[in-house]
Design brief:
alpha/beta, six-stranded parallel sheet, 18 helices, 22 strands
Amino acid sequence: MEMNDTARLKLLLAFMTMFIAVCYPIVKPYLETYMDNFGEDKIIKSNLSSFSIESEIIKAWNKLLKKPERKKFKIAIGMNTNVDLIISGTELFKNLKLNEPNGIKNHEIIGNLKQFKECFMHFFHKGSAAERFFTNSLDFEKVLELVKNLKQQWFIGGNAALMAQGISKRFSDAEILLIGPVGPKLKELLSQNIQVMDDTLVAKDEVHLILEYEAKETIESIQTPQANRFIVSYDIKNSRMELIDQFFNITSIQKPDITIVSGLHLLETQNSSYRSETLKKLTNLLKNRDHKMVHLELGSISEKSLMKNILENGLLSEVNSLGLNEQELLFLAYSSETAPHSNYYMEMNGSLELIKIIDILEWVLKAYGSKEHSNKLDIGVWSNSISSLISGSKVAAKQACGFDFDDLSNEVALEDFVEMKIPYEYDENKNIFLRMDQKKSFKFNASEPVIKIHRGKIKFYFTPTLVCKKPLKTVGLGDAISSNGIIYSEFNSS
């Protein structure tokens, strides 16, 4: 029997009545909880989630970024050059069979395969970057033999070579002199517009092994909190800075506008006497230089005595610019034993306290930028500082995600690949506050993302770095930040 419209309506009303009578008492508590949670507070948070901090920062960066006035310039870069062999750190240790009990322990120098794994796990469980050195070639060769069965990627390595390659791609008018041991594989990988002198060519490449991992990867129940890399090598030419004389001979003839010195961290493998002699020689060569501007890229140093030696021999007072990340800065303060927050390196647990970083930077500038060295580590002779800062932060985000720095068309997509990791919170008026330390917060406008902080005559500029969620390559980001920052800066040596 067919139902007419009136009968259908009556049946629907009957079902609704039955639902209200039978089912409503059961679902009522859940409905009330849902409606309570969907109040004004949730609506505000929902509206905030549609606002992209990352998008606003990127747009503002592009408005503020100003190209340097200099067009053509000559830059000399040395002295550590090598090839990087990149593999998965988790895959390596799945294949590296060790009979010794598993452990997590930091080692300044790696003496055997057990120490190799312990040291890797020490930084893996924190998600921190580090670089260490093998004391003998046999164990390192064993590891290189093992990785032949894993997926491999060959890249340019060494701070000097990475900076030279990055500059050659981003600044086509630069005349680049690369001064370091260049083997066949490295020569093949370098851009053709990078000049390599014949007397710096070597028969065999120095190989550095890069163990990369992504956030939340696991080794034996230990999960890493973020993506990073661990570097190991057995490197003679770079660790002894054997090309130091060639470097200064070439630069004295070529007279570059900018000189970049790197590779001091590799001295860790040498004895204290050799270190002291080399650092003294480097300091004297810089003191007697005829260079317009010198930048020192410090690198990852783990041995306190080496860092202390660098601080005490006057080397920092002979350079105009210093490149180092927050971990390296904290270790510098720790090694000095006189800097503010000198124990923060050992005590830090959780998010970085930015006010302490500024305190340490102020100390460095005052301690090594004295009146006797008014053009050394002195930001008073620099200009275009905001663009220098932005270009460094922007290149780190784009390079990690595999985006070209100068291509603005990819930046709408970029905002989905990056995130601001600095701790922040909203107030009831939807204002954003960055956490500067455990007690203080700083109001932040994503549309004006450069914060200026004055300490006497010193100006500090701060902007967040947007971290790539799934980085394609983490090696060389610090070198890209430094090289972009240097070239975007306007330095007046007079």
